[in-house]
Amino acid sequence: KEHPTVKEVLLEFYNDRIGCTEKKRAEVGMEERRRNPRLKEKVPVRIEALPQSTPAGDVTAKSWHALSVDISESGVVVGVAGASLEAFDVDGKVKLELELPEQWGVVSAAGIIRRVKPALTDENMILVGVEYVNLTDADAEKVKEFLYGEDHLKS
């Protein structure tokens, strides 16, 4: 019997991940509105809320070490422990560093916060949805390779 190629195994794994997500969404009647599918991947993320002026005129910035909840070509949802909902403003700007596995390395990106909400599974965590802004071509390629494999195989 012939063994499958690595490419075939990775494609099957990717399709299984997408299929599980699509099945769960269909079961609860949710329609996918995103441009790119999000894959449940946990990687370390450093997220920094860029300086904002306070009403008193002070400038504040804060950063957290966190984990991604899911990742896509266009953005990431980050689970941030120990931060308050007020620490992140929708439409606010952040800097991200996603620590992908060694063969891809760190992806650095600016981002715009699109959603902030408490995590349902952990009262000490908030979820921050960020859309990448000005992602370099090299970093965009790293994200695609991480998500889909080097051939960017999509079903």
How do the helices and strands line up, and which of them pair or pack?
Blueprint: H1 6-27, E1 44-53, E2 59-71, E3 75-81, E4 93-99, E5 106-118, E6 125-133, H2 137-148
Antiparallel strand pairs: 1-2, 1-4, 2-3, 3-6, 4-5, 5-6
Explained architecture:
- This protein has 155 residues and is α+β, with helices and mostly antiparallel strands.
- 22% of the residues lie in helices and 38% in strands.
- It is built from two helices and six strands; from the N terminus they run αββββββα.
- A six-stranded antiparallel beta barrel has the order 1-2-3-6-5-4.
- The mean pLDDT is 83.
Task: Assign an overall shape.
Answer: globular
Poorly predicted spans = none
Beta strands, count: 6
Mean pLDDT: 83
**Overall radius of gyration:** 17 Å
Cα-to-Cα separation, first versus last residue: 26 Å
What is the helix content? 10-25%
Biggest sheet: strands side by side, in what order?
1-2-3-6-5-4
Note the main sheet.
6 strands, antiparallel, barrel
Question: What is the structural class?
Answer: alpha+beta
The sequence of SSEs as H and E is HEEEEEEH
Strand proportion: 35-45%
Please give the count of helices.
2
Give the key terms:
six-stranded antiparallel barrel, 155 residues, alpha+beta
What would a concise description of this structure say?
Helices cover 22% and strands 38% of the residues. The chain is an alpha+beta fold. It is globular and about 70 Å long.
